[in-house]
Write a structure and sequence with these properties.
globular
Length: 88
C-alpha cells in the first residue's frame, strides 16, 4: 500500500509507467530530490527509471527514507521500473 512521508503534504502522484498502477503520493520537496539526482531526458521530462542499485545509491546520498521505501515497495522483485509523476 502507498505511504506518505510523515509530516509532509502529498501533492505529487507517482505511477508505474508500464502498468499505470498507482505507486503513491510524495511532496514537492521529495519530487525535487528525485529531479536533482535522477537523469532527465528533457526539461519537461516527467518519468524516471529506477533500479535497486540506484535506490541504494540514493539512500547513501541521504534521500528521504519514506521516498526510498515507497520506491522499493513499488519496485518489488523487478530489476528496474519507470515511474511517472503528475501533480494532483
Amino acid at each position: 500500500m502507498a505511504q506518505r512521508a510523515v509530516g509532509e503534504t502529498a501533492m505529487v502522484k507517482l505511477h508505474d509507467k508500464e502498468t499505470g498502477a498507482f505507486v503513491g503520493e510524495i511532496s514537492d520537496q521529495q519530487l525535487q530530490q528525485l529531479m536533482d539526482v535522477l537523469e532527465e531526458e528533457s526539461s519537461i521530462d516527467r518519468d524516471y527509471f529506477v533500479n535497486r542499485a540506484q535506490l541504494e545509491f540514493l539512500e547513501e546520498q541521504g534521500l528521504d527514507r519514506a521516498l526510498i521505501g515507497l520506491l522499493r515497495t513499488a519496485l518489488g522483485n523487478r530489476e528496474g521500473m519507470e515511474i511517472v509523476w503528475g501533480k494532483s
